[in-house]
């Protein structure tokens, strides 16, 4: 087999295997809306198909996405923001009736079914407010930088512990 063709096939397999892996799914409450943050790797130029769903009493309900058809009761209650490596879903008017196991599922377009997903159990009385976790959960790099710089700040007598 031609080495160029072999390399192209290998690259395609790697894109399928690694291009859409869900790395985390978090849930929090913004006013009366449920916010689901689905973070994923994005190492491919291929379009990524997605689906947010909730399972209650063993029945799956599609909320939003390009894989399945969202149920009518959710269509007017959802708002999706999609960026390079995160999809954020807002479910307005979140009540205890919406509790269940939420899933974020990703799949590459036009490829054999390689599915990546994460689940999270969501209960209204156990949800934290998004403002309380947003800095830590969404961007931990500033916290890591602060922790790594503590010895330097101590050495320069800026702080004392």
Automatic annotation (TrEMBL):
InterPro entries attached to this UniProt entry: Ig-like_dom, Ig-like_dom_sf, Ig-like_fold, Ig_V-set, Immunoglobulin_dom, THY1
Domain annotation Ig-like: ranges: 3-121
SMART domains referenced in this protein's UniProt entry, alphabetically: IGv (SM00406)
Any GO molecular function: integrin binding
Signal peptide: 1-19
Example GO BP: cell adhesion
Keyword Cell membrane: yes
Subcellular location: Cell membrane
Matches recorded under SUPFAM superfamilies: Immunoglobulin
Domain of life of the organism encoding this protein: Eukaryota
Key words of the record: Cell membrane, Disulfide bond, Glycoprotein, GPI-anchor, Immunoglobulin domain, Lipoprotein, Membrane, Pyrrolidone carboxylic acid, Signal
UniProt topology in membrane: Lipid-anchor; GPI-anchor
PANTHER family: THY-1 MEMBRANE GLYCOPROTEIN
Chain's role: May play a role in cell-cell or cell-ligand interactions during synaptogenesis and other events in the brain.
Official protein name in the record: Thy-1 membrane glycoprotein
């Amino acid at each position: 087999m031609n080495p160029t063709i072999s390399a192209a096939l290998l690259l395609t397999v790697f894109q399928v295997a690694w291009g859409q892996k869900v790395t985390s799914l978090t849930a929090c409450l913004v006013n009366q809306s449920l916010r689901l943050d689905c973070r994923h790797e994005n190492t491919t130029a291929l379009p990524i198909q997605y689906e947010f769903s909730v399972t209650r009493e063993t029945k799956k309900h599609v909320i939003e996405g390009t894989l399945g058809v969202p149920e009518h009761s959710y269509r007017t209650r959802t708002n999706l923001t999609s960026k390079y490596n995160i999809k954020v879903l807002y479910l307005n008017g979140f009540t205890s009736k919406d509790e269940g196991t939420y899933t974020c599922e990703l799949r590459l377009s036009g490829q054999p079914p390689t599915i990546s997903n994460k689940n999270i159990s969501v209960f209204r009385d156990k949800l934290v407010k998004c403002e309380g976790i947003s800095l830590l959960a969404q961007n931990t790099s500033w916290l890591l930088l602060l922790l790594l710089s503590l010895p330097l700040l101590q050495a320069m007598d800026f702080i004392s512990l």
